[in-house]
Amino acid sequence: MTEERKMKIVIAPDSFKESLTAREAAEAIHRGWSRVFPEAEYALIPMADGGEGTVQSLIDATGGRKIEKRVTGPLGNLVPGFFGMLGDGKTAVIEMAAAAGLEYLAEDERNPLITTTFGVGELIRAALNQGARHIILGLGGSATNDAGAGMAEALGFRFLDDQGRTLPRGGAALADLAAIDCTDADPRLAETRFDLASDVTNPLTGPNGASAVFGPQKGAAPEQVASLDQALAQFASVVYRDLGINVVKIPGAGAAGGLGAGAICFLNGKIRPGVDLVIGETALEEKMRDAALVITGEGKIDGQTIYGKTPIGVARCAKKFDIPVIALAGYTAEDADRVLTHGIDAVFSVVPGAIPRQKALNDAATNIERTAENLARLWRIAGTPQLP
Prior knowledge:
The protein is an alpha/beta fold. It folds into two domains: 3-47 and 283-382, Rossmann fold; 54-272, Glycerate kinase, domain 2 (Alpha-Beta Complex). It is built from 14 helices and 13 strands. The strands form three sheets. Strands 3-4-5-6-9-10 form a six-stranded mixed sheet, with helices on both faces. Helix 12 (310-319) links the parallel strand 11 (293-301) and strand 12 (325-332). It starts with a helix and ends in a 6-residue tail after the last helix. This is Glycerate kinase. Belongs to the glycerate kinase type-1 family. Its EC number is 2.7.1.31. It comes from Sporolactobacillus spathodeae. GO terms for molecular function: glycerate kinase activity.
């Protein structure tokens, strides 16, 4: 058997935002590399880190399906939500932004005083109806600051004022929270495991909390930030009294406008790094065990990539087996070399010189394919190392 037949290449990129899904990026890398090594064995594993694109990546990687469902958007209007059922038929993956994301709001519509996560709860209920008993919930891109109260309301919880009246939806209303009624909570929640995909470690309240750090980008003025923070503190106080959970100090409770806190309290969710969840669901580590090379990448690689982004998670797996890792990116920042001390052996931009941004996005597949082919030629010149 020739060396080319022996060589296994694992291709595990994230999406290239605004241009290619993770599956499309992996296929482009494969096309380029296989021109030089047509007899090699290839494993294409679309990846994600829990944010936008996670549903599609896990569907593609596991042979699952995407389910579309109109749900309540952040301002109460219907929006075209979706979730994924993975190939095992028991695991669902939901991006909270698919129901309550900033993408649904124009700049002048952003108002975390009134935006709600109710639609997230509707997606969870739809996933339960499909038979899911393991749900991965991505906490990112939210337009909300309601601590997941809207989500919980859609699942049967009631949030009451001191007169026993149901509170309006939105973050500001939590200032009047007096009691939480769990009587009609969906009983299937207790039978379901919830993993919360998030790399955010912010607490629920305080100067590093959900309102102070993320509120302004959701439209909150300085005085509104203060009132939202007080509302979340009231929420935490009632949760502690009624449910016995001290959510204030839990790292990550402030993710997605406090949805982290709500998912911990009402779903018994566990926060985990998003890329770790995706690695587990795709069995990436097992698939790369006998590989000669791993190729990863995403749209942008910079100094922040080392903080839980997909290429670093992939590289961390590869280094368990001492496998070299190449990363491709649409854009590499000046500080991109920071990734070279975190498991990535080489990083390359796929963009051929100074070109307009839109052209770079439009030509992403061609650029990735060409770069992969040239790297394969270099790999052949260097001697195409034998399998470990």
